[in-house]
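QUALITY CONTROL LOG
STEP: pairwise intake check
CHECKER ROLE: data steward
CRITERIA: each record must contain a sequence immediately followed by its structure tokens, with no blank fields

ENTRY 1 OF 2
RESULT FIELD BELOW
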Amino acid sequence: MLGRSGIDYTYNQQRAEFTIHNWGGRIMLGSGDKPSSLIGVNCAWCGIDEPFIQKKEVFDQMTARVRHPDAKHREIFLTGTPEEINHWGYEMTNNTDIDLGVVVGSTLDNKYLPEQYKRNLLSAYSDAQIDAYVHGKFVNLTQGRVYSEFNRQDHVVPRPDLRNAGLPIELAQDYNVDYASCLAYFRGADFIHVFKEYREMNTNTYQMAELIKKDFPNVTVISDASGSARKSSAVKSDHAIMNDSGFDLKAPRRNPAVRDRVNSVQKLIRDGNFSCENTPNLVMDLEMNVWRLGDIDKRDPKQTHLSDALGYACNYYFPSVVKKAYSVKW
């Protein structure tokens, strides 16, 4: 963008800093992962992307940094989607002592987006998610049930018709010592039907591989990306153990955001493309998992693992729409 605009600049990759020679200015890039790393600069302005999924210290630090003596105007701008607004964000946006302006834009107003893309957006989400992701409204999606679209009356359904339909049987796995979890499912062109669950305490991936292999040898296993890392407690990674046991291991290069994974499950359920049978612990997960502080509540060690495994498979084959495409500004 700078080059096409005829702006004379240099970029210091080590410091992540642009020097703009036309007007003797600097643009510095920083990370909110470590708020302390933002100390020591004087800025005329600052922009923070997705501020309300970050620590308040990031905002406080930049408030202290926007103090350049030569700046005619000092400003902080925040951009993001409002569905994950946390306590400090809520307090700040309702603080009448702050000179605060809010600009909300709906993705549907973007005339450059194809109409089919807009229709896909509207079909991908629930009404509350559409309000947040598409229209940019202040909607709290971080409380209540995680898998709110699920109910056992509609989705716990025996499917004997699938036994001889020639559909692939696959596994979705979540690696743990307590509780190691795995699901066996039929996968169609647009649906997943789970028909068996494994949930073992005090075990490891070697033992789980042997257990599962007795029922489903040499099938595809969908896993999360973290299984590629070798742990200090094992010579091999979880992925390597499953591959060496004869399974065809598939996993993304990096894990999707928790909310994107949940959205993939929710969309399948909402569209009538998910069902299960003989899976009491998965049903308990889908009924009992709740949000806590913007993330899935994992305080009960017996819960979340089977639904996490389901999410890996759903997101791998049927990913939800990527939120970064949405045109929403604070």
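ENTRY 2 OF 2
RESULT FIELD BELOW
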Amino acid sequence: MRMSELEYAAYLHRRGQRSTSADAVLTEAGLVEHIRALAKRGGFLCYHTHDSRKSEPGFPDLVMTNGRRLLCWEVKTSTGKLTVAQARWLALLERVPGVDARVVRPQDLGAIEGWLRGEGV
């Protein structure tokens, strides 16, 4: 279920912006929302646990698939630090063939769309 250009434009309008910039998504929640919109636009299904207090510690913020690829991304602010549990999850997931497990930060905005397309993986 792809996000259409019109839906993506509506998303940008709701964010009060015409284009994307690091300033617009500096918070973790803002970056998660931005990545989810880009992923949906590219045909990915996205999963994000909104309240992880009763979930397994350290599980990545976003799990996304388009049926060909599985992305498990931990979203952090520019200065956010991984917990030991988050680092453990990512280390094990990145060992699984075909899984793209990584930390994503606002300074990665320029690369995120490419990563979603499978570039630089």
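INTAKE CHECK: passed for both entries
DESCRIPTIVE NOTE, ENTRY 2: Residues 28-41 form the longest helix (14 residues).
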